[in-house]
Amino acid sequence: MGKLIKAELYRTKKVNGFWVFTFFIALYMTAAPFVSAPNVESAETFFVSSMSMLSVGAMLISLMAAYIAGRGYHHRTCMYEVMAGNSSMRIILSKLLSIALPIALIVYAAHLVGLGIACTMSTQGISEVLKQEPLFLLSLLRCTSFGVLLTMCVKSMLGPVLVYVRLLLETIGQIIASAVTSQDLMEETFNAASSDSFLSTILNVTCLSKQGVILTSPMSPDVVWQSLGGFAIELLLWGGIAYLVYSRKDY
Fold it and tell me: Per 3-state DSSP, what percentage of the chain is helix, strand, and coil (rounded to 5)?
């Protein structure tokens, strides 16, 4: 496992696109709340503004993870991992630990820098924000893990395209659901804390783009279980498919 992770990290840091993506996404997560909401003047308002940016951030970091994972298949270096006798589970875990986790941590670190800047203005609401920070990191991990696992399922650079299609379908699904139920399910105020609709709960759990809406809610058991449940579903679904694909050893 250690050798797989080390090899993947070595390949990743050699990719110029990785550092370009990292710079712009980190800049986006740090500065976007201040740019989009000039009234960001405390830790609390920064966190809320950050979450409003997460619908776009989810697409960016998912695409980044899919692109990095897809390069191994494009250059046919990933087949040697299978030929070396590594188990499907070891390969999947190594990709998650060497691609999904570092990207999520880098973006999260950028977020913390922005939060620190906001705290120099005011620490208002910081206690509530700190309670939700672990769930924010979990949401980032969910996005990057999805990008990696989906790419592993198709074993090609088609992964980033499918990531975009998935997020596009989420938006279409929310619009259709809103039309059918006569409710604006895309409103930021329609979140985990205030919703009592089964449909809205399903959307919150299954849609990557709704994670920011969930975390904008006051901390509650609903916020926790919807965040954890969505992450677990993502891992089990795409991780299970990737495991079956790799079990065939068709490289």
Answer: 80, 0, 20
